[in-house]
Amino acid sequence: MTRPLTSIGPINRSLRSEQTHPLTFRLREDGAPVWLAEYHSKGGYAAAKKALLQMSADEIVEQVKDSGLKGRGGAGFPTGVKWSLMPKDESINIRYLLCNADEMEPNTWKDRLLMEQLPHQLIEGMLISAKALKAFRGYIFLRGEYVDAAANLNQAIGEAKAAGWLGKNIQGSGFDFELFVHTGAGRYICGEETALINSLEGRRANPRSKPPFPAAVGVWGKPTCVNNVETLSNVPAIIVGGVNWYKSLARQGSEDMGTKLMGFSGKVKSPGIWEVPFGITARELFEDYAGGMQDGFSLKCWQPGGAGTGFLLPEHLDARMTSAAIGAVGTRMGTGLAMAVDNRINMVSLLRNMEAFFARESCGWCTPCRDGLPWSLKILTALEQGKGQPGDIETLLQLVKNLGPGLTFCAHAPGAIEPLDSAINYFRDEFESGIAKTPVPAATRIKEMEAA
Predict the structure, then answer these.
(1) Given this model, what pLDDT does residue 443 score?
(2) Is the separation of the CB atoms in 98 and 180 below 8 Å?
(3) What's the CATH fold of domain 259-342?
(4) Domain extents for the chain?
(5) By the 8 A CB rule, do 224 and 238 touch?
């Protein structure tokens, strides 16, 4: 049986409340799902009732926009702005809301926590969002391996339907909304919203050319909005608590508003997920929440938010966990779930493992990604085996340049290559140590790389 995930760390176990931890205050201590009766007893669906019966669609959009809520899937685009891009034409009566619950980013499991333990919170968030978007149907596009999440979401949807929170004329409001769980086949690229849309339609999961954007032409050619699980789960609290309260949750000076599920994994003493205010420092997460490194290990470097973010050094731990602050030290905050790399790990081996994943998950739609990532993998494999050749590191750096932002069809390749760029920058000597002392003839080298 899978060990329940928890966001309750030793530092905040007794401090969680509706006022400080809007995403996680309803969690049970035993990690069991919060079903409808308990969710109601903890204020559940109060926000939906307010939104459905007392607010117009435009008022909901404006409140979310004013709150400063940004996408929690990694891109960080302002949610209210994204909602406002949906067409205003009232004659367009078929619109869709899609929840991106694919969560295929290595080292990221925050959405799994919310779906397994607080399924009604996501349903309520989608219901309010659907009212704002005038969407009559929603889909939760779920990572296929999340079997428990699928079961819990489907059970919660059944409860919500029976209680009149889904279906026709919800709570007498005149608003109709249906919600379905769709499990994917397990492809990283489905985290890209247009690839997700293609997959939902039964097509190959390739990203689409934009424009048109999904807000204009989305699933089955209709206006569509795609939001992340954690993003949608924030909406009920914003509706009930208001804009000023939500903004006050972040640390003073933070440009990102509210709280965020963040975490640390690796050889730390207490790996986990915690709901913390934006603006907290990475050092606080690492030392106060995760407890620092396990005995016998030291911190070599760390990634702030998933395998597609660049490596940072221990000296960067004083950076605040916001998109701007992490960007200022050279990478992206991503999903906010950090990974500690210990002193016993060889960076070439780590990057070889990462690029193997990214090369396998490429959809193959554009040449730089389709051919460039496997090329980087072959070079890294040779370096790991001590068979690298002079010029290999320069070739890797050229691939980093050629696969950068704006040079590929979507953001898969730029994300895949970002950790390689930072690893070479900070640990070039480990790459250089993989270059063979005796050069290998070119013909032999080609055969070895073709066989790899």
Answers:
(1) 56
(2) no
(3) Ubiquitin-like (UB roll) (3.10.20)
(4) 36-248, 259-342, 347-451
(5) no
pLDDT at 10: 39
Query: Could you give the CA distance from residue 286 to residue 263 in angstroms, rounded to a whole number?
Result: 8
User: In this predicted structure, what is the pLDDT of residue 89?
Assistant: 79
439 class by beta-carbon count within 10 Å (0-12 exposed, 13-18 middle, 19+ buried)? exposed
Phi–psi pair at 164, nearest 5 degrees:
85, 20
User: pLDDT value at position 11?
Assistant: 38
C-alpha span between 309 and 291 (Å, rounded) = 23
Task: Centre a 10 Å sphere on the Cβ of residue 377 and count the other Cβ atoms it contains.
Answer: 22
Q: How far apart are alpha carbons 118 and 111 in whole angstroms?
A: 10
**Hey, what CATH class is 347-451 in?**
mainly alpha
pLDDT tens, 388-414?
999 999 999 999 999 999 899 999 999
CA distance 213 to 371: 27
**Domain 36-248 shares a fold with domain 259-342:** no
pLDDT of residue 191: 87
CA dihedral 355, 149, 201, 178 (to 10 degrees): -150
In this predicted structure, what is the pLDDT of residue 15? 63
Give average pLDDT by consecutive 10-residue segment, the chain, 452 residues.
39 66 94 97 97 96 96 88 89 90 90 97 98 96 94 98 97 95 89 93 92 94 96 97 96 94 96 95 96 97 95 98 95 94 97 96 91 96 95 96 92 94 97 86 62 64
Q: Could you give the CA distance from residue 375 to residue 408 in angstroms, rounded to a whole number?
A: 16
Domain spanning 36-248: CATH superfamily: NADH-ubiquinone oxidoreductase 51kDa subunit (3.40.50.11540)
Q: Are 113 and 101 in contact (CB under 8 A)?
A: no
Pairing of strands 224-228, 259-266: unpaired
Q: State how far the Cα of 276 lies from the Cα of 37, in Å rounded to an integer.
A: 27
Cα separation, 264 vs 268, in Å, equals 8
| Mode of pairing for the β-strands spanning 259-266 and 337-342 | parallel
